[in-house]
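User: structure tokens for this one?
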Amino acid sequence: MLLPVNAEEWIQIFPAGTTVGRDGRGPYLLADPEAVITASRSTVDLFIDRDHAADLAAKGTEVKAAGWIKELKVEAGAIFARIEWTPPAQEQLKNREYRYISPTFLHEPGGRVTRILRASLTNDPNFEMKAVAAADREFSPPTKDSTMEKLAQDLAALLGLEGDNISPDAIIDAAKSLQTIIAAIKADFEVPAEAVTAEAIIEAIKAKTDAAVKTEVASQVKKATAAISKGEPDPTKYVSVSIMQELQTKVANLENEHAAEKATASVDAALKAGKLMPVQKDWALSLASKDPKAFADYVEKTPSLIRDSGLASYSAETAAAQAGLSPLESTIAHQLGVKPDALKAELKKTA
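Assistant:
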């Protein structure tokens, strides 16, 4: 059995937030419901017709009122209207001849709702809103229980709980866990007992953190200053620039001296082995110092220019007596390993 429809009652006339019509129009945004109510107030009651007859009927057609909007208010972000129904409309609602309400309103180009002009009883509403009349009185304004349900949903969202039909026990457990975490934070960061807001706790944490950082920095600066004033920097971490430069110079000198000694020894050995002529000594020393490997390769590939035949004991005076050669010619003959007479003969051919 249907409950009787009251002559005056509150019904939802515009949904909260963003709404898209069933026909695809929209979205429409009820961003400031209080401002919309202010803009909708008039010196006369707002009109409620049937099937939007006031907007769709031919000009001159008589449109009878189904009711009058006596008052508007905001509930949970939606706009509700206190309606004074006409007796015929009450009868139609009770008999379910009409079940829904559809607002006529103004909006900005972007869809922001600015004003409600009137409303209409309809059975084909564009917005998803509860029926005006039903056996379970779906059109009733929010009750204390529905307000508490909304509060529970908001609290669950704040606590990070997800899903539908979150139980009160789950909300309580999450709140207790949060309370434990907050208590631990307050203890660790010495938050004053009277600091109960999130902002106060954050400020206390920042203050202690800043203080700890400042203390550590001050300590490090103090240690560094003391070390500098004593002229005793940590020898495991710091080396004097002058000492480092002196050490580098000494190492470089030692390396150069060692290279020069090795080059001299290599060149002397090559001269003794007949791999070089005395006129090549300066060039050989330069190459052996700069590129020891290249000099060693050169010596290895160069044939000996002398034969070890007792030249050290061979005198120019002895050679002068042989075949009438001069001391130089005698020495050349000995180095080339030819007989003095043969050399003399060759010299005569080229004379």
